[in-house]
Automatic annotation (TrEMBL):
It comes from Ruthenibacterium lactatiformans. Pfam families: ArdA, DUF3846, DUF4316, LPD18. This is Antirestriction protein. Residues 224-324 form the DUF3846 domain. InterPro entries: ArdA, ArdA_dom1, ArdA_dom3, DUF3846, DUF4316, LPD18. Residues 543-562, 573-585 have a biased composition (Basic and acidic residues). Residues 539-585 are annotated as: Disordered. Residues 359-437 form the Large polyvalent protein-associated domain. Residues 517-555 form the DUF4316 domain.
Length: 585
């Protein structure tokens, strides 16, 4: 005789509608039948199509209502409906005493039961637990064992029974047996091992309990081939088990399916990815190439079958491997979001090598530059003392970001350029190519300094010992691997910076001036020649202003570049009429 009386229900919800922000579902009373389940699916829209022609084919469960203690807590949102019906049918087929037995086991906090499969198996293992109904407390238990256990046959204890502490006796019995008092009665394990009658597979569900089709109809591929796209990584192909649980595992949480492409594919992502602060991954774009959404966290690209997600075909795998090939970073410019392709260190080195095989020219674009993200194109150039320098603008940000300057080979020379080849920038470039007869420290070269990360060749590198000596006569700087520098104010700063593996620098102009103090003729010529390549002992030009006398009060190179962007320009206009932001790329 059925005993559940409607106390086992689940709210079955249309997953596609839920992902669109609409809760469409219905309470289903278990056990049910296949015909009734089909009617529910029709009412909640499973099998119908959305406005884009995509079929609503997935469902999940948003709530449970079960009067048996602990059952609802063990059931998840993506439980199989056939398994739920299997459990409900087994419970409904029990007698009243068997159901009370099951309830008592659940009330006791059975360690063997952890999920839906275990609940089904418990219905086959009631005999592994002794159940004594109507035992409300330890006193009841102590009296039950005393009288039913034959201790007082023929009333041999007589009136002494009134002096027995049955509560203490009952509690000791429960402790020794590992038993538990429940609302339904007393339950204790027999110690026998469980019989795993149900192995947990869908194929092992008896046909009479199925509500979504027979076992033959459920024969489907057990795996599917998908494309996995992780943040900052190239996509890769992976074969995963079929089913929603596997998809959840791959994206690390509840899934959301979106269909941004005309091809029969789905993008499966973490529904709470942005709320959980997962790293931004790839942009989704409309027909005009404009970004309308950004996927956070790892996502999958899957194929679509008639009623579920499936494997991608080889052609689709190749297509979307290319679509999501390049990792992206994101930045906000004004009121719009832009995506910047991320070039891996290996790709960047290869690109730089390829680009350096040909000279940079006025048509160069899409060029990767060591130390900067994204790619660049030329917008201006300038000849200085026989060397050509190229002003580069970012391909993505354009005028919204500062420019950089590279040499003929594409090597970075200066960053943070705000006003093109202005007077201050030209002065720095002159020092870049200025010749020096003697280095302040022969143990380190300019090339080694650039490999360290400091790119301006107008600075001569030094290690600790040489820096301490040069500081006696010249202003020196702490150099950093991010292409910045800081003024050294005292000897302690030298020791501290050197201890961290740092190196030092002195500007070429200062160093050359110091060397020439011992050679008045060269010193005079250095202050008068336009072309540093013409230092030959003969003054070839008219008198010029001696800028080496302005050594006092010097600021860092980066500060000089930044201050130049706000200075009034008195010579020919810069190629940039609008000021650039200080976005570092």
């Amino acid at each position: 005789m059925p005993v559940l009386d409607g106390s086992f229900e689940a709210f079955v919800t249309n997953l596609g509608k839920y992902n669109e922000g609409e809760l469409v579902g219905e309470w289903v009373q278990f056990p049910t039948t296949e015909d009734k389940m089909k009617e529910v699916f029709e009412r909640i829209g499973i099998g119908s199509k959305d406005e884009f022609g995509q079929v609503y084919e997935e469902w999940f469960i948003t709530d449970y209502d079960c009067s048996i203690h602990g059952v609802s807590n063990l059931l998840g949102e993506y439980e199989n409906l056939d398994k739920l019906n299997y459990l409900a049918s087994r419970l409904d087929e029990m007698s009243r005493s068997e159901l009370e037995h099951f309830v008592a086991i659940m009330d006791s906090g059975c360690d063997e039961v952890n999920d839906l499969d275990d609940l089904i198996n418990l219905t086959y293992n009631l005999d592994n637990y002794d159940f004594i109904p109507d035992i409300k407390d330890y006193d009841d238990l102590g009296r039950y064992y005393f009288f039913e256990g034959g201790y007082n046959i023929d009333n041999k204890f007589g009136s002494f029974v009134d002096y027995i502490d049955f509560e203490r006796y009952g509690e000791d019995c429960a402790i020794n047996e590992g038993g538990t008092l429940t609302d339904a009665g007393y339950i204790r394990p027999t110690g026998d091992s469980w019989n795993r009658y149900f192995d947990g597979s869908l194929e092992d569900i008896p046909d009479e309990y199925r509500v979504t089709g027979s076992g033959a109809e459920l024969e489907q591929p057990t795996t599917m081939t998908v494309l996995v796209v992780e943040p900052d990584q190239k996509p890769y192909v992976k074969e995963i088990p079929s089913g929603l649980e596997s998809l959840q595992h791959e994206v690390g949480g509840s899934i959301q399916a979106v269909y941004p492409f005309a091809e029969p594919v789905a993008v499966i992502c973490n529904e709470e990815g942005k709320l959980e602060g997962l790293p931004l991954n790839r942009a989704l774009r409309d027909e005009d190439g404009e970004i309308y959404d950004i996927v956070a966290g790892t996502f999958l690209v899957t194929g679509l079958t008639d009623d579920s997600f499936g494997s991608l075909s080889p052609d689709l795998l190749r297509q979307f491997m290319t679509e999501f090939k390049m990792p992206e970073q994101f930045a906000k410019i004004g009121d719009r979001i832009v995506a910047i392709p991320m070039i891996s260190e290996e790709q960047q080195k290869q690109t730089v090598l390829e680009e350096k095989s040909s000279i940079v020219n006025e048509n160069t674009s899409g060029m990767a530059v060591d130390g900067h993200i994204g790619t660049w194109h030329t917008i201006d150039h300038k000849e200085i003392d026989g060397h050509t320098f190229w002003l580069m603008e970012h391909d993505t940000f354009g005028d919204d970001a500062s420019c950089i300057i590279v040499d003929e080979r594409g090597d970075l020379v200066l960053s943070h350029i705000y006003d093109g080849f202005d007077e201050n920038t030209v002065d720095l470039l002159r020092q870049e190519v200025m010749p020096v007869e003697k280095m302040p420290d022969d143990s380190i070269s300019i090339e080694e300094m650039k490999q360290y990360g400091y790119k301006w060749g107008g600075m001569l590198p030094m290690r600790e010992e040489a820096a301490a000596e040069v500081m006696k006569s010249c202003q020196i700087y702490r150099l950093y691997g991010d292409d910045t520098e800081g003024l050294v104010l005292d000897a302690n700063e030298i020791k501290e910076h050197a201890a961290k593996g740092g190196i030092f620098g002195v500007e070429k102009a200062d160093w050359v001036a110091e060397l020439e103090k011992q050679n008045p003729l060269k010193a005079a010529e250095m202050s008068l020649e336009d072309d540093y390549g013409m230092i030959d002992g003969i003054i070839n030009n008219g008198p010029k202003e001696d800028k080496t006398s302005e050594k006092g009060g010097k600021v860092s190179i980066m500060d000089r570049l930044k201050s130049a962007k706000t200075a009034q320009q008195t010579d020919k206009p810069s190629p940039h009429k609008e000021k650039k932001s200080e976005r570092e790329l």
